[in-house]
Design goal:
The complex is a heterodimer. In chain A, helix 1 packs antiparallel against helix 2 and helix 3 packs across helix 4. Chain A has two domains: 59 residues; 77 residues, no CATH class. Helix content of chain A is 72%, strand content 0%. By secondary structure, chain A is mainly alpha-helical. Chain A is built from four helices and no strands. Chain B has one domain. In chain B, strands 1-2 form a two-stranded antiparallel ribbon. In chain B, a hairpin with a 6-residue loop joins strand 1 and strand 2. The chains are: A mainly alpha, B mainly alpha. At the A-B interface, helix 1, helix 2, helix 3 and helix 4 of A face helix 8, helix 9, helix 18, helix 19 and helix 20 of B.
Chain lengths: 149, 500
């Protein structure tokens, strides 16, 4: 756990420094006319100090316990569900909401262990159509139609 | 408007058909959110924000507030019957509530929990009704330095109280503040951290960030740890009534938990959670049988379950009277008002009385509805736990995605949602608390604006923050809060060395 936290904190320090450098690129103005760069400089300094503070804490008082990383089937389920969500976002403008939702719901149901095929297909259709009805028709949110437009 | 006149006006607002439906709907969704382990009130409010955009501002806040305090009721059900807290606020209830269930007193624990929640919710709303207008009136004299100091106190106190290592909390807080700086600067119209992406000029929306950090991260956690259905302790309706002795032992903890919880709610930090631990400790120290705690003491259910409800009402005081949220839940309610274009701050109560008094009155009605929903209908809620996890996950994930898209019809919001979901999952794995990000995102713009306005007023003199009595006092409290714990630890260390 300590090693992982150190990696996280060092990454945070690098990103904080980049943020701070970026902040110096905006006009700072004067103290009586503060510009858009002044506040991000304070935030950047806070981030840098907090990152260093976290690194010191990790070194002086290391966190107890092991990092629980999912393995095997657990990792597989995690990656498939995350991948299905990302695929929904990617497919939405092209395939539209209905097809993307059918893909997402079916993959999640299958991955999470729903075994009955009629149940899988039925629930997929109900959830996908239900979400379309709720948002597109009831709430009048124009959801992308993709190839159906 | 006196509190009584205000309350009567609030009832006239609240008793319209749409607002009554909003109270009942919010209470039902809140109970559901509380019962289901996983998606909490913050994620649920974020999920429903797009739906409330078509409602009037009073109806929207009445419904979302119902979800917020309703989840405090529902959280205890799974704690008592399954030993799985539906909410972080019900972790303490697991300790003795589940032990009571194993002894065949599940019904009594559920009844005491529901009645305690009702007593606390009602007491909380009475106190809210008197405190919030007073504070708002006082806050009319506040200027930018005072708001800057309060926002700073809210942010740093949260990082001090969460229980996570201090620098880790500040880092997470800074991350939230940094995200809030992305987009077009409202004063100079300079683009910051947009990297040429046009959509980023609008800034990063709060809702996809919250939905990602709470909703998607929760879905990923469940996907990685998928287990079977929880085993539910069975119980009959006639067992729902506590004995006379159990009632007698519960009234004191309910009352003490209500008072303690409300005042915890006024303090920045995760008050709804911390108030339950404080109440548990208080009841244990006051009990004639402290040895029973952990084995099924009814005081350990009555006190904490009352405290979390009262804290939820208390947390609404700074949100409604100052426009400053101290908890993620209150931050989401404030976000709902901001999305509706309602001017928040001390003028809210006088300028939009239908919102403030409507919400107050709705809380009275909501608490009665929640008592009915959670007491005799407890069997209905536990049966929800029997729905296959796969269906719940698929439903929540799809609604989260569509909900995030629906706010601005923006693909960028969906990308933010996924990125935040993955980040939220990783933060959970390394035990980083994400709550400060939400509060920082809401308070960040306010912090910047008030800082710049204060410097304009003082013609560049930064001592304005310390020389004005109220902001100076608040900053002094903040300094003590930040410096005292490490100093105390150092003194204890030296003391130990001296005696060794």
């Amino acid at each position: 756990m300590q090693r992982v936290l150190l990696v996280v904190d060092i990454t945070a320090l690098i990103l904080s420094l980049l943020y701070l450098v970026g902040a110096f690129g905006y006009p700072r103005g004067t103290m009586d006319q503060p510009g858009p760069g002044l506040y991000p400089i304070f935030v950047g300094i806070l981030l840098v100090i907090a990152s260093i503070g976290s690194i010191v804490t990790d070194l002086v008082k290391p966190a107890q316990g092991e990092l629980e990383i999912p393995k095997g089937k657990d990792l597989g389920r995690l990656l498939i569900v995350a991948g299905a969500a990302a695929a929904y976002v990617f497919l939405l403008p092209y395939a539209g909401h209905l097809l993307s939702a059918i893909m997402l719901v079916f993959i999640v149901l299958h991955t999470m262990g729903l075994t009955s095929w009629p149940m899988k297909i039925g629930v997929t259709i109900v959830i996908a159509l239900g979400s379309y009805y709720l948002f597109d028709i009831l709430l009048m949110v124009p959801l992308p139609r993709g190839i159906f437009s | 408007m006196s509190p009584l006149e205000g309350l009567l006006y609030g009832f006239s607002v609240c008793l319209s058909m749409k607002n009554l439906l909003a109270v009942i709907g919010g209470s039902i969704i809140g109970t559901l959110v509380g019962v289901l382990p996983g998606i909490g009130p913050v994620g649920a409010i974020a999920l429903l924000l797009p739906i409330t955009m078509g409602m009037s501002s009073d109806t929207s806040l009445i419904m979302l507030a119902g979800i917020y305090y309703g989840s405090m009721y529902g959280g205890s059900t799974t704690s008592i019957l399954v030993n799985v807290p539906g909410e972080a606020t019900s972790v303490v209830t697991c300790l003795d509530g589940y032990q009571m269930a194993k002894k065949g007193r599940a019904g009594a624990a559920l009844a005491v929990s529901a009645v305690g929640s009702f007593v606390a919710g009602t007491m909380g709303v009475v106190l809210l009704m008197f405190f919030a207008p007073l504070l708002a009136e006082y806050a009319l004299s506040f200027g930018p330095p005072e708001y800057f100091a309060i926002a700073l106190l809210g942010l740093f106190a949260l990082s001090r109280i969460t229980g996570a290592p201090f620098w880790q909390s500040v880092l997470v807080l800074g991350f939230g503040l940094a995200i809030a700086t992305v987009g077009l600067d409202a004063i100079s119209f300079v683009q910051r951290y947009t990297f040429g992406v046009v959509q980023l000029t609008q800034g990063i929306e709060l809702v996809p960030v919250v939905m990602g950090l709470f909703g998607v991260a929760e879905v990923l956690t469940i996907a990685a740890e998928a287990g079977g259905l929880p085993e539910i302790v069975k119980m009959k309706f006639r067992e729902l009534f506590p004995t006379r002795k159990e009632w007698r032992r519960s009234w004191g903890p309910m009352f003490r938990g209500s008072c303690l919880g409300f005042f915890w709610g006024l303090i920045p930090g995760p008050s709804t959670v911390l108030s339950t631990f404080a109440s548990y400790k208080l009841e244990k120290s006051l009990s004639k049988h402290p040895e029973e705690f952990g084995t099924g003491a009814i005081e350990a259910v009555a006190g904490p379950e009352s405290a979390n409800n009262a804290a939820a009402a208390g947390a609404m005081v700074p949100m409604l009277s100052l426009g400053i949220p101290f908890t993620p839940g209150a931050a989401m309610l404030l976000a709902a008002l901001l999305i509706q274009g309602v001017p928040t701050g001390p003028l809210l109560i006088s300028a939009r009385p239908e919102i403030f008094w409507g919400v107050v009155a709705s809380m009275y009605i909501g608490n009665v509805a929640l008592l009915i929903l959670n007491f005799p209908l407890v069997g209905v809620w536990t049966s929800i736990l029997k729905i296959p996890q796969a269906i719940l996950i698929a439903l929540i994930l799809l609604l989260t995605l569509v909900g995030a898209y629906a706010i601005n019809n923006s693909m960028l919001d969906l990308v933010v949602l996924i990125v935040m979901g993955i980040l939220g999952y990783l933060f959970r794995k390394i035990k980083f608390d994400v709550a400060p990000i939400v509060v920082a995102l809401v308070l960040g713009p306010m912090l910047e604006t008030t800082m710049r306005e204060s410097l304009y007023i003082s013609r560049g003199d930064p001592t304005i923050f310390f020389t004005r009595p109220i902001s100076g006092t608040i900053l002094a409290i903040l300094a003590i809060m930040l410096v005292a714990p490490p100093l105390w630890a150092l003194m204890r260390k030296w003391g130990k060395r001296g005696t060794a």
